[in-house]
Write a structure and sequence with these properties.
globular, mainly alpha
């Protein structure tokens, strides 16, 4: 399966965002510093890493792509 075939359709982004808001509060990201010019926000990176770790099927790169797509839909940041 190519990364173009991996879609985040069928995933309830709103429900995941509500859970993430409880698990990883936005105030946490204010404590984390990112380098100048970084394209990821610290909270978004933490969320994508969390989702990536929860996925169990497919190669690592494809799971990362799916996690990034979910985070993108949740936060519209990329």
């Amino acid at each position: 399966m190519s990364h173009q075939d991996m879609k985040s359709e069928g995933i309830n982004h709103q429900a995941i965002k509500q859970a993430v808001d409880q698990l990883i509060p936005a105030s946490l990201s204010r404590c984390l510093k990112v380098r100048a010019g970084a394209t990821w926000k610290s909270r978004t990176l933490a969320v994508a890493a969390f989702i990536w770790g929860c996925l169990s099927q497919g190669p690592l790169e494809e799971r990362f792509t799916l996690a990034r797509n979910v985070a993108d839909k949740m936060f519209r940041c990329f």
